[in-house]
Amino acid sequence: MVKVAPSILSANFAKLGEEIRDVEQGGADYIHIDVMDGHFVPNMTIGPLVIEAIRPITKLPLDVHLMIEHPDHYISAFAKAGADYLSVHVEACPHLHRTVHFIKECGVKAGVVLNPHTPISMIEHIIDDVDLVLLMTVNPGFGGQKFIHSVLPKIQRVAQLAKERNLSIEIEVDGGVNAETARLCIEAGANVLVAGSAIYGEIDRAAAIRAIRGKK
Ligand code: DX5
Ligand code: ZN
Q: What is the pLDDT of residue 215?
């Protein structure tokens, strides 16, 4: 089953509650929340306070994508704020095994994220311990960028690894996803599609979500 995770990065922050309810009613499966610190990526967004404010207004799981240095310092704050999934970049985690297990000890599902150039070998020894693998299909930091096609074989490789090891993990893609690139990701084996501008840039969010899911 293909799931769609609208990224609120492209929403109107002045009416964030309404923007979240709109995609929930439009059939979204997760709410994707991009946390940026101005160090790991050249942009700044939101922290635990905003997640705490969002938590009571939606029933959907909150899929929190940490694009920050030293994520270990903030994991318990994001867990307490109500994150359902916490995903960390392997490029920001020298002790990834410890970080992943700390996320789980906090009662949250753990995800690992790879930038477009980062090889799958970086997660071969941790994939059995995670709930989600997120493959970036843009360089993180901004919405509205162009999909990087060279990530497609990486999606296939993760799907193959999951199958070989009999793992039931979410395989998520993020960046430049629209109806057309979503189809390529699904064919390669992704089952969770993050989309910001392709959903929030449209007036009819329900139709945009259906298009990304591959339904009319
Ligand atoms: C990029 C973020 C994405 C972003 C995607 O750093 O991680 O989640 O919101 O935006 P689009 O779908 O517009 O590429
Ligand atoms: Zn993201």
A: 82
Coil vs helix vs strand at 96: helix
The residues pairing with 67 across neighbouring beta strands, listed in sequence order, are 36
- The CATH H-level (homologous superfamily) assignment of domain 3-213 is Aldolase class I (3.20.20.70)
pLDDT tens-place string over residues 104-162: 999 999 999 999 999 999 999 999 999 999 999 999 999 999 999 999 999 999 999 99
For atom 1 of ligand 1, the residue with the nearest CA is 140
pLDDT range class, residue 216, cuts 50, 70, 90 = low
State pTM to two decimals: 0.98
Distance CA 136, CA 200 (A): 19
Active site residue 174: yes
Report, as an integer, the average pLDDT of 71-76.
Answer: 98
Give the pairing type, strands 109-114 and 132-136.
Answer: parallel
Q: Say yes or no: CB of residue 138 within 6 Å of ligand 1.
A: yes
137 lines ligand 1 (CB under 6 A): no
For the chain, domain boundaries: 3-213
Is residue 177 within 8 Å of 212, Cβ to Cβ? yes
Query: Is 34 a catalytic site residue?
Result: yes
CB 123, CB 133: distance < 8 Å: yes
Query: Which atom of ligand 1 sits closest to the CA of residue 36?
Result: 6
Look at the alpha carbons of 98, 101, 106, 111 in this order and tell me if their dihedral is positive or negative. Answer: positive
Query: Do the beta carbons of residue 31 and residue 38 sit within 8 Å?
Result: no
